[in-house]
Amino acid sequence: MKRLSLWAILAAVTSVGLAAPAFAGTTFDAVKARGSLNCGVHTGLAGFGAPDDKGEWAGLDVDVCRAVASAMFGDAKKVKYVPLTTQQRFTALQSGEIDMLSRNTTVTSQRDTELGMNFGPFNFYDGQGFLISKKLAKVKSAKDLKGATICVLPGTTTELNLTDYFRANKMNFKPVVIEKQDELAAAFFAGRCDAITSDSSQLASIRSAQAPKPEDYILLPELISKEPFAPAVRHGDDQWFDLVKWSVYAMMEAEEKGVTSANIDSLKGGSDPTIKRLLGETPGLGKALGVNEDWAYQIVKQVGNYGESFDRNVGANSKLKLPRGLNALWNQGGLMYAPPVR
Amino acid sequence: MSQPAPKTPWWNDRANRAILYQVAVVGLVVLAGWYLISNTLANLAARNIATGFGFLVREAGFAIGESPIAFDPADSYAKAILVGLLNTIVVAVLGVILSTLIGTIVGVARLSGNWLVSRLATVYVETMRNIPVLLQLLFWYALITEGLPEPGDAFKPIEGVFLSNRGLKFPTPDWSGLEWLVLAALALGVILAFLLSRWARLRQAATGQTFPSIRIGLALTLALPLLCWLLIGAPTAFDRPQLDGFDFSGGHSVSPEFVALLTGLTLYTASFIAEIVRSGILAVAPGQTEAALALGLKRGQVLRLVVMPQALRVIIPPLTSQYLNLTKNSSLAVAIGYPDLVSVSNTTINQTGQAIEGVAILMAVYLIVSLAISAFMNWYDKKTALVGR
Question: What does the alpha-carbon distance between residue A48 and residue A44 come to, in Å, rounded to a whole number?
Fold first, then answer.
């Protein structure tokens, strides 16, 4: 809602002005002293960040928050979730309202530089697609959308890609921009727009969660952009950036080594040196990161490895049923590749 | 015996103290401002966040749904913000005019002797002003998008007019580029009618002779454009909306977002204006009405010549606040996707990351618009104030 986000911006502006001396280089210490992590997440996107039926936050992005909390505190529950719209997210991070942003945010050079953010490892590779009603039988491709009215979230890379795509193909369109995703989707399902565009994972999520009849809507075949998502932190605290980075890598490394939340305890006392390092049985990594030696063990035990998190939230065991595709491990045909955890 | 009064030390002197306090207060304000600005700049620099207004001339790269002037994604951020401002002004001006009309009618209706009319007006006021305006906007928007058919099955209340969930489409005259002549004639007619009524009023005040200025003025406003239309050859061509692919093309189109915003703001503000008008009328002593009636004036004349001029003095100051509220409330447009100033600025802020500059521009523009409205209303207030003779 507009009021809210304007307040968020104003609050951010004031806090940049007032609270600033507390930052430089001390996010890590501030989080440690507070005893909980302030994590910026989606206001409600099934599979990535949304409260489940018990009211607890769940999703692929939420799992990154939980992994960092596990590494830091040995407790995945020590997270305070701050739901943010696309328009609030960067200001919230810049101003220190949140410690990290894990909210299906596309990495771009401008965000990495001008916006003063550092991006961690990519935790989801996506591309922008179009969702249309099956009633538009003549539309077989995005190129048939000439003159269409298109629903899009404002202030996103999606909005810019959409404009670029139509400009490149010399087609015109009418945008309808509404800041809250569920209201935007509601306008689309009410027929206000001919198509809704977003990251294809997000469209799958919207379709399964909000469509009156999900089978009446189809995704057009084209993906018009690269949308790699990653968690982000502010510039200025490299130790904090390291912890976020390696928390995500540990999840990927665990999957690659076949370590899961179910079998991790039975692997204790084994002989594989990589697994011994992951379990904290060979000391050193935790100290280097500034956390307990069992940091990676806690992540896998409480959150699971990357594959478990994927299947539970967006993959085979979820409502979205997205294929692994680009998000499979590198040795299984995907792009997920963690540097050695050693 | 009178002793010489003990000399007051300068710091105990009242005039000196007043100056001292003022200097201290101004100093504190300046210091606080300096602290905020320098601290903000230092922190932005420390975190490598870009600053400055250079982004305004860069290409915006996003499209805007509706605009009174042509806007292309290749235009600059500055132009995008201008489009947002124009959209805000369009909705604010129309909202102020419509809410004043509706508010005045409802306000007078609440005082009506007719039980049904006054009760209906009361129900309207109490309902509208007690529901948050954001909810009203969402309600109107949902009503339009959910309630109206898709473009293929659009309602056709009149030939050439289409009402669908894509908005209202209506034909516009297509008179080989000469439409503006007729419009100019209409404007001329309105100006002439206004001057005529002024002259008639002055003459009546001086000589007591009446002049049917309303009837003649109305005739002028209608006859001039008609004459002009005949002169350019009485064209009848229209640019009609036609279903073309996804939506209608041709003619003029009013979007559902605009209609929802205008309806919501107008009905909400009108309920407050109704109460202001009612209080203004009640503030005029009943003796005035009785005296006017005793002089033989008709009911309508009593309201127009005696009650309203006095009521206006009470009405205008709070009315100004309502106009300002309406203009500022138009920023709720973002919730329903009307591309107003806040919506476009928010997108700009998000694309460039320059929140402080973006919010500064927003605040400055709203301040300027609000002060302009205030200045106009203060001028009008002075004009209607009691003139000592």
Answer: 8
Q: Determine, yes or no, domain membership for A145.
A: yes
Q: What is the DSSP string of A192-217?
A: S-SEEEEEHHHHHHHHHHH-SSGGGE
Q: In whole angstroms, give the CA distance from residue A255 to residue A109.
A: 29
Yes or no, beta carbons of B62 and A160 under 8 Å apart: yes
Asked if residues B241 and B250 have their Cβ atoms less than 8 Å apart, the reply is: yes
Q: Does A236 lie in the same domain as A99?
A: yes
Q: Which domain holds residue A94?
A: 21-125+229-250+305-326
Q: Which tens digits make up the pLDDT trace of B215-259?
A: 888 888 888 888 888 888 777 778 888 887 787 877 788 999 999
By the CB < 8 Å criterion, does B329 face chain A? no
Query: Of chain B residues 148-177, which have a CB less than 8 A from chain A?
Result: 150, 165-166
ipTM strictly over 0.90?
A: no
Domain boundary among A225, A258, A273: A225
- In chain B, count of helices (H) and strands (E)? 12, 7
Task: Quote the crossing angle between the two packed helices B77-110 and B115-129, to the nearest 10°.
Answer: 150
3-state DSSP call for residue A133?
A: strand
Is residue B8 pLDDT above 70, yes or no? yes
Q: Are A58 and A194 found together in one domain?
A: no
Q: Are strands B162-164 and A232-234 parallel, antiparallel or unpaired?
A: unpaired
Any domain includes A11:
no
The closest CB to that of A115, out of B39, B49, B244, belongs to: B49
Which residue from B133, B137, B345 is spatially nearest to B256, judged by alpha carbons? B137
Q: Which of A225, A241, A261 is the last residue of a domain?
A: A225
Question: A25 and A110 in one domain?
Answer: yes
**Homologous superfamily of B77-167+252-384:** MetI-like (1.10.3720.10)
Residue where the block lists tokens 């969660």: A209
Q: Residue ranges of the domains in chain B?
A: 10-46, 77-167+252-384, 175-236
Say whether pLDDT at A19 is over 70: no
Q: pTM surpassing 0.80?
A: no
- A143 and A216 assigned to the same domain: yes
- Only one residue has tokens 């665990």, namely A254
Calpha distance A328→A326 (Å, rounded): 6
Give B369 to chain A, closest Cα distance, Å.
Answer: 18
Helix (H, G, I), strand (E, B) or coil at B131: coil
**Tens digits of residue pLDDT in B35-83:** 998 888 888 887 777 778 888 999 998 999 888 898 999 999 999 999 9
Distance in Å, alpha carbon of B318 to nearest chain A alpha carbon? 24
Q: Please tell me the distance in Å from B329's CA to the nearest CA on chain A.
A: 10
Torsion angle in degrees (nearest 10) through CA of A299, A302, A308, A313: -110
